[in-house]
Amino acid sequence: MRLLLCIAGLLNALMADAQDTTRTRLLKAVTIEARLPQIEHRPDKTVIQIENTISSEGASTLEVLEKLPGVQISRDGQLSIQGRTGAVVMIDGKSVALSSADLQELLRSMPAATLRKIEIISHPGAAYDAAGNGGIINIIRKTNRREGFSGSFRAGHGQAWYPRYNTGINLGYRARYCNLSFDLGAQRNTDFYISDITTNVLYPDETLQNTQHTLNRASRRSTSLTPTLMADFYVSPRSTFTLSVMTSRQRGNSQVYSLLRTATDSQTVINTTDNQQSNNLSSLHWQLRPDSSGRQLTVDADFAHYLSSALRNTEPDTVRLTQERRLQFCALKADYILPQGPHSYLSAGFKYSNVDIRNDNGHDNGHDIIRNKENILAGYLAYSRSQGALRLQAGLRAEQTHSNIQQTTYSYLQLFPSLLAAYTFNERHSLQFKCNRRIDRPSYAQLNPFRYPLSPFLYFMGNPQLQPQTAFNNALTYSWRQAVFITIGYDLYQKYITTLPTLDTDQKTVLRTPANIAGASAWNIDISFTKEWAPWWTTDGEMTIYSRQFTSDFSQAGSTISLDLSCNQQFRITHQLQAECQIRIVSGQQDATTINSGYYLVHAGIRQQLFRQAGSIAVRLSNILQSEDEAARYHYDRLRQYRQLSFFTRAIQVNFTYRFGKGKSQSKTTATQEEQKRAE
């Protein structure tokens, strides 16, 4: 009923055409602001504007990331950019020391209404952490840009297989010496999917030994509350102090009903999990510009505490497991920029980070407590120069890593060079070359040797002997009129990390374990463009063709050529009415022993401005064709597994937003925003 009322209100607003002169002037001002490019290609990054987009209405940050061109998120939370695996996430330029699954939960709890933009940095320079072979996804949150007191209220209701709700309030106050903003968001979602798995076990001569079939029906209900506080204090015209605090509280319940059938018998198992997560992230930032020469000093201190607990029950065998994971993270870093003339500058910095994680796994026979610690001391030196049509940026980063895993100590020093060279021939043509060396250290979940149930007959177990994966990344980009970009890339991996499935001793349970293989290589061709066909119609498109080859002795070490196609259409029907439509096509792809089938998605949305631009109502349609289903097959040793996944994610979402406060927009750049420019 509430959904019908919201749609009725939208249709009523669409029919209203009476506008006074004052309203017309306001709409013209907003039109100028809204026509800023949604996707902007810079020499070292791609910037995607998220603020005020229809796709962010009532969505989580995770949902927004899944729709970004060239970005893919696997079912276990692994991120890739343009087919390059191992991408990492930063929030306001800060590292997030979480495993893929925990990071996925954090992003699911963050409302997209708090985001300003997202930066995709495919080949980071020396100023960034060396972690992340696939590049960096930097999430930039909103800061208050209005003088005086202002704020907004938002609420939404959606219907997929189950209903979903979201609400939130944002408050801001800006004066001469400070800028304060507070956001409180709450969400409640329920997901549902079905998996159909067939497992074949072979004899050594590769003839069939036995077959088992598993049908899983899974639902997951989650509730989250996310308060965020950001404060800028303008100590002097050349010095700014910034405080940022974000807390996320999540509660969830999942149920998996599984039916296992073999040639001789069948078995029904119910797996129930109750979990809680608490994420606390705090950061302090100080920026000083001593004079007008361009010198700049920034100092950052970051603190984070993550707590995750889960209670798992399996029936009818009455197996009870408890898991608790505590992670504490702290980091201190400083960056200094020293101009070397009007067209060049030298930058240097250091960073120290410490991670302490404690896993407590409880079972019928007692508790297994596993503790991991990691310290990283890093320093870098970079030089940038622009001379006419040529721009060069070179850097070298050194990282000393000291880790203690299961009473085993590892200590190593590695160097990470980076280079960016760009040449502009004329206003139409330009060429750019980027290369760097990166590292993927195993996550703490990948190192934990405790068995973690994914379903009653599928477990994940970490590998304490897992080694870091490194990569050399290269890319050559041609640009035509800063509207069409063609990139050719090649990456070479050492000690490539993949997950291998094996059959457990009970001949029923499949165990997935991460392992290093000798190496891998990958190539990609990416074509992206932005075209304004008319003042009311803009298209952003991207197509990536890529392939990965693996150096190993397993049977599926070949390669598959894959395609990722994204097309986003934006329409300004009137000054008050906007619409969006996105089409995404992803073909089959291979990662070592796993081959996944393709899928395609169609999303759409429409938004009407109300109350003289103070309010808006939006209707967002996700996965309209219910076409996200995919299949996968695993071939390793004597195990052959085939999986069919059906995701019931087709949804309609209605969201209402109301903004209050009459302060004018302030153009002054905050310290948080300035930090993002340090590597440009």
From TrEMBL:
Residue ranges occupied by any Outer membrane protein beta-barrel domain in the UniProt entry: 291-658
One GO molecular-function entry: siderophore uptake transmembrane transporter activity
Keywords: Receptor, Signal
InterPro entries, alphabetized: OMP_b-brl_3, Plug_dom_sf, TonB-dep_rcpt-like
GO terms, biological process: siderophore transmembrane transport
Keyword Iron tagged: no
Secretion signal span: 1-18
Pfam family, one: OMP_b-brl_3
Domain of life: Bacteria
PANTHER family per UniProt: HEMOGLOBIN AND HEMOGLOBIN-HAPTOGLOBIN-BINDING PROTEIN 1-RELATED, TONB-DEPENDENT OUTER MEMBRANE RECEPTOR
UniProt-recorded name of the protein: TonB-dependent receptor
Lineage: Bacteria, Pseudomonadati, Bacteroidota, Chitinophagia, Chitinophagales
